[in-house]
C-alpha cells in the first residue's frame, strides 16, 4: 500500500479537469501537462503545477510517454492517471511507468495487452461461458477461405480490425459480390489507423443495441459491476448519447450481463475501472464485443445512478486498497443521460467546426452536470477531439432525466462554433428515443438535416430565425449522406485525433 500524494494527469480537456477535481477532494496535489496549443487551457490553470510537453500535435506532446515519466521523476510525482485516449491503453507506457517506480492508475500492462486486441480478448474469454457473436476466431488472410467462412456465418457480415477502436476499421458486407471491395477498405483503414492490418469476420447483427457494463476490481481479486450503460445512439460506430440504466433490460438480463462482465474481468485478472461492451439483439440476447481497459467517456452516468466517484475508486485501487463495497451494496438510483456536445455541424454532415467560443454559458440547476474545460473566448484547437463538453442530467425517472436534458439544452448558450446541441435535442424529443425502442440505426433511420429546420407552425422561432439570419453569415449548403455504416468519406473526426 502506498498513499498517493501527487498525481500527474497525462491528458487534456474535460477529462483532465474531471480527474483533478477528485484528486483535490482527496487532498492529492495535481500536475498538468499541456501542449503549446493548450497553454491557456483551464486544466493547466486548475492544476497545482503544469509543464509544457511540446508542440500541438499529440505525437509531439501528449503521447511522449518517456518525457512524461521524466517530468514525474523531476516533480516527485507518485502516480499517473492517463484518462481516456492518448496513452491510456498503451501497455508499454503502463509498463515503463511502473518500472520507473510510479503508480499507473489503471490496470496491469498484461490486462491491457490481452484486451487491447479484439481477437486476443476473444481468446482470453473463450474458456469461460461468455456468449460471443458468431465469427472467425482468428485473423483472416486468405480471401477464398474468408468468403467460405462468411457464407457459413451468413451475410451480412462485419469485417473488423483486430486492433480497432473508435469505430474505425469496420466494414459491413451485405453479400459476396462486395466482399473484396470491403475487405480492401477494412484492411487499408486498419493499417492507416492502427499500423496493423489484421482483420476478422463477425456476423453483423442487424438491429443491435450497444449495452456495456462498468466494472471495478481491486488488486486483491475483488470485482464488482456497476450496472449498464446504453450507448446505442451512435454515428459511424461512435457514441453520441449514453444513459443508465437501459430502458429495456429486465432485472434478470441485467444480472446475467453483470455476472458475465465480471467473468470477463476475471479472465484477464483485471483491476481498476473497465468496461465490458456487449451487443444486444432484438430478442435481448447479448454477445461480448470487447473490453475497454480505461475510464470511459460516458462514465458520469454510472456515477449519477450509483453515487460512486469512479475516479476516486480508481485512485484507491491503485494505492492497493481493498474495494470498500461489495456487489450487494450497489443499487441503481434514478436515471441519468449524457450527451456529447461536439464542435460539429449536424446540418453539414457533422463536419468538425473550428472557431472561437464567442458566447459560452453553461446550463445549471437541479440534476444538471456539465463536464467541460471551456470558457468564453477560447478557440477550439484543431489538433484534438472536437468534444466541447459532456452534458449530463439526472432525474428520479427516465422521463425526468429527458425533461431536464431538453431544458438544459435550451439553457446552453454557445455561439461562434457549430455544435451538436440541437441535434441532441432532436434525439431527446424523438418518439423512438422516448419509447426506448431504438438501436444503433437510430440516426440513419430518423435523422436528416431538415429535421433541425424550424417547422412552419413555430411562428415565434421562425421570426427569431429570420432575425438571426439578418445578423449572421449565410448558412452553408446542406449536404447529407448516409454515413451510418461504412463510409465516412475520409472526413473522420479522428483526423487530428490521438493515435494510440
Ligand atoms: P468511449 O466513449 O466508449 O470511451 P470512444 O470510442 O468514444 O469510447 O473513445 C474514447 C476515447 O478513446 C476517444 O475520445 C479517444 O481519445 C480514444 N480513442 C478510442 N479509439 C481511438 C482510435 N482509434 N484512435 C484514437 N483515439 C481513440
Ligand atoms: P470499437 O473498438 O471501435 O469501439 P466495437 O467492437 O466496440 O469497436 O464496435 C463499435 C460499434 O460497432 C458497436 O457499438 C456497434 O454499434 C457496432 N458493431 C460492432 N460489432 C457489431 C456486430 N457484430 N454487429 C452489428 N454492429 C456491430
Ligand atoms: Mg467499443
UniProtKB/TrEMBL annotation:
Record has Magnesium as a keyword: yes
Keywords in alphabetical order: ATP-binding, Biotin, Ligase, Magnesium, Metal-binding, Nucleotide-binding
Domain ATP-grasp stretches: 122-319
A Gene Ontology biological process term: malonyl-CoA biosynthetic process
Name of a matching Pfam family: Biotin_carb_C
Region Disordered: start-end pairs: 480-500
Family annotation (InterPro entries): Acetyl_CoA_COase_biotin_COase (IPR004549), ATP-grasp (IPR011761), BC-like_N (IPR005481), Biotin_carboxylase_complex (IPR050856), Biotin_carboxylation_dom (IPR011764), Biotin_COase_C (IPR005482), CPAse_ATP-bd (IPR005479), PreATP-grasp_dom_sf (IPR016185)
Keyword Transferase: no
Gene Ontology molecular function, alphabetical: ATP binding; ligase activity; metal ion binding
Stretches with biased composition (Polar residues): 481-490
Domain Biotin carboxylation: 3-448
This protein's name: Propionyl-CoA carboxylase alpha chain
Amino acid at each position: 500500500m502506498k498513499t498517493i500524494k501527487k498525481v500527474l494527469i497525462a491528458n487534456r480537456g474535460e477529462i483532465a479537469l474531471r480527474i483533478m477535481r477528485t484528486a483535490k477532494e482527496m487532498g492529492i496535489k495535481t500536475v498538468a501537462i499541456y501542449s503549446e496549443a493548450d497553454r491557456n487551457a483551464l486544466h493547466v490553470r486548475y492544476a497545482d503545477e503544469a509543464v509544457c510537453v511540446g508542440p500541438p500535435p499529440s505525437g509531439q506532446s501528449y503521447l511522449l510517454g518517456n518525457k512524461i515519466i521524466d517530468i514525474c521523476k523531476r516533480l516527485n510525482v507518485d502516480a499517473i492517471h492517463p484518462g481516456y485516449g492518448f496513452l491510456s491503453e498503451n501497455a508499454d507506457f503502463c509498463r515503463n511507468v511502473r518500472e520507473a517506480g510510479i503508480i499507473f492508475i489503471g490496470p496491469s500492462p498484461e490486462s491491457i495487452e490481452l484486451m487491447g486486441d479484439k481477437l486476443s480478448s476473444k481468446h482470453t474469454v473463450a474458456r469461460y461461458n461468455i456468449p460471443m457473436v458468431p465469427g472467425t476466431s482468428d485473423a483472416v488472410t486468405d480471401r477464398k477461405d474468408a468468403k467460405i467462412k462468411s457464407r457459413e456465418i451468413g451475410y451480412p457480415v462485419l469485417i473488423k480490425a483486430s486492433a480497432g477502436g473508435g469505430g474505425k476499421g469496420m466494414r459491413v458486407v451485405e453479400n459476396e459480390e462486395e466482399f473484396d471491395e470491403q475487405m480492401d477498405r477494412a484492411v487499408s483503414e486498419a493499417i492507416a489507423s492502427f499500423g496493423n492490418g489484421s482483420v476478422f469476420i463477425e456476423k453483423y447483427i442487424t438491429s443491435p443495441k450497444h449495452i456495456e457494463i462498468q466494472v471495478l476490481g481491486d488488486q486483491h481479486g475483488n470485482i464488482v459491476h456497476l450496472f449498464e450503460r446504453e450507448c446505442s445512439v451512435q454515428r459511424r460506430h461512435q457514441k453520441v448519447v449514453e444513459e443508465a440504466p437501459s430502458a429495456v433490460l429486465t432485472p434478470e438480463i441485467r444480472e446475467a450481463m453483470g455476472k458475465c462482465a465480471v467473468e470477463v474481468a476475471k479472465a484477464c485478472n483485471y483491476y481498476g475501472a473497465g468496461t465490458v461492451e456487449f451487443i444486444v439483439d432484438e430478442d435481448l440476447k447479448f454477445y461480448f464485443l470487447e473490453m475497454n481497459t480505461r475510464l470511459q467517456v460516458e462514465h458520469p452516468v454510472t456515477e449519477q445512478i450509483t453515487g460512486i466517484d469512479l475516479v476516486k475508486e480508481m485512485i484507491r485501487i491503485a494505492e492497493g486498497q481493498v474495494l470498500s463495497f461489495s456487489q450487494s451494496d450497489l443499487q441503481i438510483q434514478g436515471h441519468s443521460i449524457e450527451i456529447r456536445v461536439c464542435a460539429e455541424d449536424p446540418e453539414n454532415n457533422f463536419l468538425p467546426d473550428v472557431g472561437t467560443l464567442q458566447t459560452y454559458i453553461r446550463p445549471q440547476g437541479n440534476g444538471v452536470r456539465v463536464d467541460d474545460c471551456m470558457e468564453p473566448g477560447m478557440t477550439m484547437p484543431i489538433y484534438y477531439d472536437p468534444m466541447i463538453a459532456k452534458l449530463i442530467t439526472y432525474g428520479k425517472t427516465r422521463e425526468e432525466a429527458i425533461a431536464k436534458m431538453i431544458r438544459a439544452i435550451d439553457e446552453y448558450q454557445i455561439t461562434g462554433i457549430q455544435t451538436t446541441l440541437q441535434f441532441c435535442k432532436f434525439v431527446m424529443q424523438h418518439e423512438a428515443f422516448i419509447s426506448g425502442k431504438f438501436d444503433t440505426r437510430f440516426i440513419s433511420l430518423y435523422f436528416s438535416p431538415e429535421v433541425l429546420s424550424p417547422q412552419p407552425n413555430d411562428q415565434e422561432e421562425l421570426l427569431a430565425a429570420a432575425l438571426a439570419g439578418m445578423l449572421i453569415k449565410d448558412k452553408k449548403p446542406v449536404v447529407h449522406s448516409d454515413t451510418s455504416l461504412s463510409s465516412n468519406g475520409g472526413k473522420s473526426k479522428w483526423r487530428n485525433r490521438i493515435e494510440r
